[in-house]
Specification:
By secondary structure, this protein is mainly alpha-helical. The chain contains eleven helices and no strands. α3 packs parallel to α7. It holds the Pfam family PAP2.
């Protein structure tokens, strides 16, 4: 049987192979990028806005507490930095590749859905009045009674994109994925009652929630917009994470499906006998000593399950 050790699956040794196996996924990501660009270029639906509907649309026109350029940093670059730190420690290209791929899918699918809904709904932002009438002088069509905006076209266009919140959906997609990832790595749901681990898991979600709150405070969104955006982002983060990783409460919740599949295939007997199931596969860490605990699984020094040793201290705490 093949013998595996930590650091045996690096970007240099297995990176090209892993990328080739998922080339169609990367190509699909490029298609999603193009779709999102198109959705941001086209004109959104201009919903009818009568004079009596302006009551909730006269909030001040303010800048963004969280600027647009900061959203990719929060939703993508920060999680990638965490993935990179874990890769440097463990040297597992399967985990690194699938974490990045899953994150990008979560963010881009969320972005496409968000912008498609924005364009289709065309809900005015809370500051729509001042976008439409920057001089404060309201003008309405004498026949339809619809607004006859006198402001800058690009500003008015952005004013019809309130629902759902893009800042919020992107933040919850990226940081929600990161929360799932951290939960798996620290084994937050291993039934040992270490609730302090949840504080680490909740930190990304708290950051996403603060971004959502800023959108209401800046009068760029109604509360329903950020609620829907958060729900959308977190849902897509969950779907995309579980596509690549087992649930965090699973015994193998610390690593990607592909990693265990690779181990299972590599441990097949050379004589072509039937392959071992994942639950009984020998793994790479036969030299790792794991002390049994009263309340833990029956693990011994000869355990055949990879226990992600860099975090074993956390699981024994």
């Amino acid at each position: 049987m093949a013998d595996f050790h930590l650091g045996a699956h690096t970007i240099k040794s297995h990176g090209a192979k892993v990328v080739r196996l998922h080339m169609h996924d990367w190509v699909t990501l490029l298609v999603l990028v193009v779709l999102d660009v198109i959705l941001n270029v086209i004109e959104p639906f201009h919903r009818f806005v009568g004079e009596d509907m302006m009551t909730d649309l006269k909030y001040p026109l303010k800048g963004n507490t969280v600027p647009f350029w900061a959203v990719p940093v929060i939703a993508v670059l920060i999680p990638v930095a965490v993935f990179l730190v874990y890769y440097i420690i463990r040297r597992d290209v399967y985990d690194f590749h699938h974490a990045i791929l899953g994150l990008l899918y979560a963010v881009l699918v969320t972005g496409v859905i968000t912008d498609a809904i924005k364009d289709g709904v065309g809900r005015p932002r809370p500051d729509f009045f001042w976008r439409c009438f920057p001089d404060g002088q309201a003008v309405f069509d004498p026949i339809t009674k619809d607004v006859a905006c006198t402001g800058i076209k690009s500003v008015i266009k952005e004013g019809h994109k309130s629902f759902p919140s893009g800042h919020t959906s992107w933040s919850f997609a990226g940081l929600g994925f990161l929360a799932w990832y951290i939960a798996g790595k620290v084994r937050a749901f291993n039934r040992r009652g270490h609730v302090a681990k949840l504080c680490i898991v909740f930190l990304p979600l708290l950051a996403a929630a603060l971004v959502a709150v800023s959108r209401v405070d800046d009068y760029w969104h109604h509360w329903q917009d950020v609620f829907a955006g958060g729900l959308l982002g977190l849902t897509m983060a969950s779907f995309c994470y579980l596509q690549f990783f087992p649930p965090p409460y699973h015994t193998d919740g610390w690593g990607p499906h592909a990693y265990f599949q690779m181990l299972s295939e590599s441990q097949q007997p050379q004589n072509g006998a039937a392959s071992h199931s994942l639950s009984s596969r020998p793994t790479e860490l036969r030299t790792v000593t794991i002390h049994p605990q009263n309340d833990a699984e029956d693990l011994s020094a000869t355990s055949t399950r990879d226990t992600s040793p860099i975090l074993s201290g956390a699981t024994r705490s």
